[in-house]
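Quick illustration for those who missed Monday's session on complexes.
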Amino acid sequence: MFEQQIERFLKRHSYKVIEPRAALIDMDGTLYDSMPRHAQAWMRMVSEIGIHATLEEFFLYEGRTGASTINLLFNREFGRDATDEEIKDLYHRKTVYFTELPDVSPMPGAQKMMRELEAAGLKRVLVTGSGQSSLINRLDADFPGAFAPDMRITGRDVVKGKPAPEPYLAAMKKAAVSPWQSIVIENAPLGVEAGDAAAAFTIGVTTGPLSGNALEEAGAAIVFPDMPALAEQMPQLLAELSSVSNH
Ligand code: CA
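Prediction with calcium ion bound:
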């Protein structure tokens, strides 16, 4: 069913085999339907300091650390990086505005997707650029047993966030696996780019306003139209990935 996509991925990364042992999973827009609220919180914060932005652009920045997004906007608007204090203050304001918005829900299909990974015996590592503790702290309630306490990489654990491969390489280290033993699950172009740059089989899921093409262009090995579709086909996909042999 997925031979073509798997074959294309193997060629591109010069792999002979894949042996999925760990799933490295993004949080916002993948596990939680949180992106619209993040975008709203960003808009409120930046408009207060006179930065012109659109709601849509925050979907393109998705995956970046807060500091990186703030610097990008500062350079565009003020021609300079933000100071460490400004970053701390502004990111704090954004996280407060986020928590003031109505509660976000787990992405439909995400809980089933996590159970399928667990049933297949894969280690799971959370890989998020976010430092939004209001969501990170909810993971255990919404996804019981999905992530061991030490199997989490957040925006605080990396120097160069997505689209750099560092967060995913750090996750592989935590799970003690190699890139060819890793699958990445992502919803945003910059996150997909990071997963592919880390040489993992990167699954893109379109859960927001961006198209599947945007994820393919960023390097997704395969794209699913939504999370329920991925959850449904996960056992088949993992079976096919594991059965790849030397051609
Ligand atoms: Ca995301």
